[in-house]
Amino acid sequence: MTGISMTKLQTTDAVRAAWVLCWREFVRFFRQRNRVMGAIVTPFVFWILFGTGLDQSFRMSAAGEGGQGFREYFFPGTVVMILMFTAIFASISIIEDRREGFLQSVLVSPLPRGAMVLGKVLGGTLIALFQGMIFCLLALTLPQASVSLGSFVGLVLLMFVVSVGLTAMGYVLAWKMDSTQGFHAIMNLVLMPMWLLSGSFFPIPSLSGDNWGVMHWIMKLNPLTYGVTGLRYFMFDLEPVSGESFWEPGMGTCWIVSVLFAIVMFVGACRVSESRTTGGT
Predict the structure, then answer these.
(1) b/e per residue, 215-236, with b = 16+ CB within 10 A?
(2) Mean pLDDT, rounded, of the chain
(3) Sign of CA dihedral 112, 156, 69, 38
(4) pLDDT at 226
């Protein structure tokens, strides 16, 4: 057998193994109905409660005549919350697989580490995308929602990219941990502030205000900010807001930062998977 044939065979085996691991995440997820309900119902309750309570008191005057109510503004952030929760649950499976011995059996197999990472990350990403698309159907109840085919395709693609970044980041954080309780604490410490400071719950203040310079730069350096803003553009066909009160990045910047974040996190997951785990493998 030639070297080219061997390379093709190894590539085929790696892709097949990655798909098996991806499908395993699907089966595992849908067998645990509490995970399905928790990942969708919790953000839905957040959106209903906060959207209803703050809708009349929130109005982005820079967004044009009439402004935008809080239900519309908070909706993309709620979608990202669903993606974020799914990333947490998907990453926990790494700790569970190590405890059950499954991860060790994968690590000692001829399977490339990159294929293992691809399978785990892709499984969590597709689950998050599935849940996010279901929730996005509620956008049809909003008067300002965009329903064009181009907006829908862009929305799905950007949700996929954001899901890859979040799931891969969860993978990196979970790799060295052996406690689900400790993992929840770390993820809440990292992901919840990251979500709150992404423009999901309140707009990004401009630099014109003397007391908002620090908050502006924290939110501007947050990679999740660009995913949330990009989803808002696709959902409501809005133009970037830039004025004395608020600041938003452009669509091109949202794509560039979101893709770079996903690539960096995936490469980081591949790198960290080459190191030894807590389980001693």
Answers:
(1) ebeebeebbbbbbbbbbbbbbb
(2) 77
(3) negative
(4) 94
pLDDT given for residue 175 in this prediction: 81
Token duo for residue 161: 């990219």
pLDDT digits (tens, 9 = 90+) for 37-86: 666 677 777 777 766 666 666 655 444 334 567 778 888 888 998 888 88
Query: What's the rounded Cα separation, in Å, for the pair 117 and 168?
Result: 8
Q: Which tokens is 178 given? A: 């052996």
SS3 280: coil
Burial of 116 (0-12, 13-18, 19+ CB in 10 A): buried
Does the structure show a pLDDT above 90 at 101?
no
Using pLDDT thresholds of 50, 70 and 90, give the confidence band for residue 259.
very high
Amino acid at 10: Q
Query: From the DSSP assignment, how many helices (H) and strands (E) are in the chain?
Result: 10, 0
CA distance linking residue 204 with residue 235, whole number of Å = 18
Contacts of 261 (CB under 8 A, 6+ apart): 165, 223, 224, 226, 227
Give CA–CA dist 47/29, Å, rounded: 24
18-43 tens-digit pLDDT: 788 888 877 777 777 666 666 667 77
Cα gap 57→54, rounded to integer Å: 5
Place of tokens 């490469």: 267
Residue type for position 96: E
Q: Residue 63: name the closest of 252, 250, 254, 248 by CA.
A: 248
